[in-house]
């Protein structure tokens, strides 16, 4: 066939012209969407149960969830994953169902469960697939990982100010943590134990609700917000206070390191 078109260039030109004409004719009928509609068929139910083992999660959260949800119409599949301190159930709807009604039915079924452990948190129910990635930004710089994370969070907040962008997530970092390193020499010098230091840090590093005040016009929520969010703030915590006003602060007896939970994120 190649030889034929080489010997008959007119036929090759006619065929090319025909293909171009067909393309122009069919172009207006092509379906084009910048943000195509995505059908949603899955719902996630997440329940936190602090300190529970995966076996306890399976018995006390997953099984009651599955039993309550199984009777819902248009269920295609139910999966429940038992993790340490966490249960994640994913419910998939059949394509013939109404997703709005299906979501309401799942919420009602979960709300009716009355045998969850007392210490478990309220179930969090959300629809999967409601958002889609539009742009992925790779960020790199000659900075320590902690400073790079701060830079990423700053960029995230600036992007969220743009109208029409509902969600921005930062990935690639594990949970941030402050490591407080103490030496035996310092502890012996001030006659302290690790537990004493930990207790005094916890007493001065608070972020919790304390109640509310109700008036005829409005209600006021009272909250203690004294959580330390940087190594410099932690260094100012008072560990020992003398009778004459002299103080020993955490920075005097400890080294505080801003790092990440996973070892692979701690390298700079």
Tell me the total number of β-strands.
10
Mean pLDDT across every amino acid position? 82
How many discrete domains? 3
In terms of DSSP E residues, the strand content is 15-25%
- In the CATH hierarchy, what is the architecture of the largest domain at level 2? 2-Layer Sandwich
Largest sheet, if any?
A: 4 strands, antiparallel
Oligomer: single chain
Helix/strand structural class: alpha+beta
Cα-based radius of gyration, to the nearest Å? 30 Å
Strand order of the biggest β-sheet: 2-3-1-4
Total helices: the number is 9
Question: Which key terms come to mind for this protein?
Answer:
two-stranded antiparallel sheet; Multidrug efflux transporter AcrB TolC docking domain, DN and DC subdomains; 268 residues; 25% strand; 10 strands; 3 domains; disordered C terminus; 35% helix; alpha+beta; 4-stranded antiparallel β-sheet
Which helices and strands appear, and what pairs or packs with what?
Blueprint: H1 2-7, H2 9-26, E1 42-48, H3 54-69, E2 75-83, E3 86-93, H4 99-111, E4 124-127, H5 145-160, E5 176-182, H6 184-189, H7 194-204, E6 206-214, E7 219-226, H8 231-235, E8 238-241, E9 247-249, H9 250-253, E10 254-260
